[in-house]
Records
---
Amino acid sequence: MNIGCHVSIAGGIFNAPQRAADLGAECFQIFTRSPQGGKAPELTRELLENFSAEMQKNKITNFVIHTPYYINFASANNRIRYGSISVARDELERASLLGAQFVMTHLGSAGELSEEDATKKTSEMLTKVLDGYTGSAELLIENSAGSGKIIGSTFSQIAEIIKNVNHPKLNGICIDTQHSFASGYDWRDFEKTLQQIDSEIGLSKIKLIHANDSLTECASHKDRHAHIGQGLIGTEAFKKIVALAQEKNIDMILETEHDEVVIDIKLLKSFRTK
């Protein structure tokens, strides 16, 4: 398994592999467009060739793409809902061109909808995203911290959405350690939490891990990342999470601030057994 982090594509997407390597990352995550909105940069043949060359030069094989922040599959606003479908599908197509393994997405907010209706609406929209899709990249659902009426804070809800969509390219999740901790999954009680996740969705569904410690208490429902060992999840829990990732061959991506992400990467690498 590889350990890496999120990196910027400033100046061109082909700069990402070198940025990742400079931080000691063995894999990386990127946005292929501004996460706040706007037109996506065109993926020209020259750009794709440059990107591939940089991946080879830096000896990195695995990378993933994160959809923009404004995705909301259960929005009451048709423009936002169908815009989310369009962008998510476009990211899958772009990921397939670039050679990314996965595209991960948040699901959005239920707004005025009940949890049941939000689950149904989200499933319906994701089905539209994947309709006729034949690319290589897989779509992953990332769990949320659960503030307000954010969808996907429980693995049981995500499992139901995946079951409803029933598409071979949506068969997994990206677990964010901080989001799950904030939603009440206490990684400090590792075996209990693992059993809970397994019973709700199945450990085989975990395809990627966002490794983030938490500034806020368990079940706080607040999205506040901390550097590894500087939060309330703690290093002992992360040693066990790394062992799980190594056993299951699951890549880990840090989303901590770049001031100390190099230290975080080194720390997680030190938890691996040879």
---
Amino acid sequence: MANYTKLTANLAKKLIAGYDLGKFKSMSPLDGGQANSSMKITTRTGIFTLSVCDEKNKEEIQCLTRVLTHLEAQNFPATRLVTTKTCKPFILHGGKPVYIKEFLPGEVCRDLSPWMLRQVGQTMAKLHGLTPPPGLPGQFPYGLVSFDQVFGVEHPYANWLKKKKKYLETAIDPAMAMGFIHGDIFWDNLLFSDRSLVAILDFEEACTYYKLYDIGMAAVGCCSRNGHFSLDRVKQLVLGYQQTCPLIDAEKKQLKIFMEYAAAAASFWRFRQYNIRYPSPGKKDNYLELSSLADQVHAMDESQFYDVFMV
């Protein structure tokens, strides 16, 4: 399993010593992602999130902190980075990057209402309209270029992914617009207060890539229920997006393909994470829900999909 850092009160006090946060008061655990050990820290001056990056390296966190700084300058709804007393964006502990953000009150909601989904679409469109920060990667970290990493594994999934990659490489139109994307807008990366979107969280996978990929991944992460897409929910997400950034006809025709691509990529990440990198008997089949979503999208009638969502 991953070597996650055990955050204690004494360690937290040591880590925040280089920040101008005031006296440490208390800490409590947070449900983090798969790459961080995170705690909510309360000090004399406020509440903060402290994250030790157990899987991300120094270069990746340098990119992330540049992204967060850029988003703050653009007044985009995301968490705000706290810099050290010497204005550094992060520190190192045992060779692992550590960074601190302001803690935002609110809640994550698994079941998003139509209004909430439209807000997600609108905010994602605003992100796509921003100029990317300098040094942003030009490929999605677990997109098509990474799929080969599992092809040597003796497992039915490897054959499934080979076929999916071959199809997607011919189906994706490389002329589709690229821009500043989040890449992982799942329901648990969204913060709401009274059903209003407060912030999009966790920009670890941000890059310059196909804008349609971001919409496709948001559809995968926010619009499926019990292993099946809710077409009505996808429609609300897309309606919200188009209120800010209307899709051209060629993009409308490609969205179905990018939804399939995003589902396949997310399934790849889960398979690699829990079957290769950190084998977990309890999670080894977690990829199946997402590979099934990819197949569901592939089976949808193209003209019917276009008629339902795009007119």
---
Amino acid sequence: MTSAKDFKERVGQLANKYYDEVVAYRRHFHKYPELSNQEAKTSEFICSQLDLWGVEYKKNIGGYGIYGFVNGKNPNKSTIAFRADMDALPIKEETNLPFISTNEGVMHACGHDLHMASLLGTIRIMKELENEFEGRVMFIFQPSEETYPGGARKMLNAGIFDEMIPCKIFAFHSTPEMECGYIGMTEGKAMASTDEIYIDIIGKGGHGATPELNIDPILAASHVVIALQSMVSRNATPTTPTTFSIGKFIADGRTNVIPNSVHLEGIIRTFDEDWRKQCHELIERIASQTAKAYGAEAKVFVDHGYPFVYNDIHLTRKVLDYAKTYFGETRVVNLPPRMTAEDFSYFSQEAPSCYYRIGTRKKNMPITNLHTSKFDIDEESIKNAIGFSSFLAISFLNPS
């Protein structure tokens, strides 16, 4: 049987062969983005391609999710999975691309168009190689990564692993901080858990010129924000990365009107589940007691989000080795953990997983950051994404 290393050149040739086709997929997705839980036409397009290639799949899983298989020889021998997210963001695009979003106020500003197109390209390559590898490749097109409770949990609850749990699960993300041609990953804890915090400070509104007759929720809320900022610095173990931020502070008064209430929203992110739970308790206590000190009341709601993403250390080290073979040692980067969050974390709890990052920045060009209106990629990164994903599949299914 042909070894994994021998497949490197073959896979690279196939990545070149299907490059233009996959670029067209990416541009289609980019031109017609859909928000979380609304990915109907995106799903239809993916299914139309799978139908053309005669690939088995199931659709409308946990929303508009799709999963299926490319079977090699002895398909029950081993199964590995690849996941791509489908949803776009509520951002008005400000690029000059010829395939700019036609859905006003919606944009693929996080690279999910690249992720979907690349997974289609990987399926295309693995389908061509179906008689040359053992086992099978499971593909997962997941909706609603950007919006709680996330499509990963919905698809798992819908039973995509009930009959079979893959022995390994992979995903990648567009990374504008890295130049096209580079790949990176993190061993162990890779991305933080995330929870959304909603706090209402209830006071007693009135005329701004008679503060003694009021219970000022703005003053109370201001002290709540300041007190909460000390939660991490005074309670977190210094070796446990944690970030807390208030991103919304709404006090709907006017120059001479103190409102009845103030609304706060924020996030808490960390890498330790016990400390995460403690944070929730601290937020409740600090907000309530601080507001009470000013005569106000705090109502706190913690919307539990995604757990942290964990890259299996043994598996990730093997992926690093395969990446060095495919990209060359100087183009493989060991990355530090990120405080960003991802519902791929639910998949990483089901089986050993590795979430890696593909460089997408154009050479000698400034970074166009994720979640911004001018985000774009170097489409040459598509070759790297589909080539390496296919090489990775072959390497694990046909170990040398």
---
Amino acid sequence: MNTNFITTWFDSSLIMGNTPEAYGYALLAFGVALALLYLIKNIGINRLKALAETTETDLDDMAVGLIEKFRWFEYQLGAFYVATRYLQRGPTFDKTLKIVILLVFTYRAITIVYDLLSYWLNKIASQRNLSEAARASVVNSTQVIMRAVIWVAAVLFVLDNMGVNISAVLAGLGIGGVAVALAAQAILGDLFNFFVILLDKPFNVGDFLVAGDTAGTVEHIGLKSIRIRSVSGEIIIVSNTKLLGMELKNYKHMQRRRVVFKTTVTYQTPAEKLKLVPGMLKEIVTGLEKTTFDRANLSNLGDFSIDFETVYYVESPDYNFYMNTHEQVLRAVIEKFGAAGIQFPYPTRTVFINK
């Protein structure tokens, strides 16, 4: 009689709407689910690591790293969710649990998506032969935009799953976006042109540019502007849109320099000596190192001089070497013309007066 009473009491008594037996099943489910999750975490990841070490690609290493991002409380939260399936739950409890799970695993999804996009971005940057400084500048600037986009998408996802009407939110964002776009056209234009620079690669960090009155070495490529170290030493900051709107000369990949210069002689120079001038110019250029002669011709009959045009190439991109070479050419022209009795003209004018 006494035993039947205890058994009946145990079966019919409720603790927060559930029998002790239900709590026992829930506790057992929690332990089994947690054990399975930790088993998968410890054994499965170790095997995946060993497998990843045998392959040449780094994609599987990244996949293992993403799986390892899950923390102990996330495994316990998953096991707790399984355990609650064996219990009678109130709507408030279910709603609270849903929000907690939504927030925790949405955050984990954000970190995984961000790592995937960063991996893809670094892959693209490494394939474009950028310097370390250029790669860091491009990757860091792009990651700022990616992070903002991911977080906005995550917030909208959470709001939608919490029952918020995101259509109204998106409509508001759309109207606000148009207003912001109109107010920030210059910023958005610079942002767009940053991606043009990233993908089209008109220049990289370390390149020497000449654009209008600006000449110098690119030190930083940012989301909105580019910093250029001028030849005189100061930093010049130019917006992305303005710089790409100008004609750019990039000297970074120059292999040789084309040199064109004019030589003038007086009209009193005899015709026999005029015929010798192109050969003399060719001899001067070919006698120097790292030069390639192209042509030398009588090009013009000026107001007070006979003009010759010479074209040759300096087989080096170094500007100082080019200047030293051209100086040697001009010195040799002065010496050879002086030895041959060929004179350089002065700006003169002859006035004839009729009496």
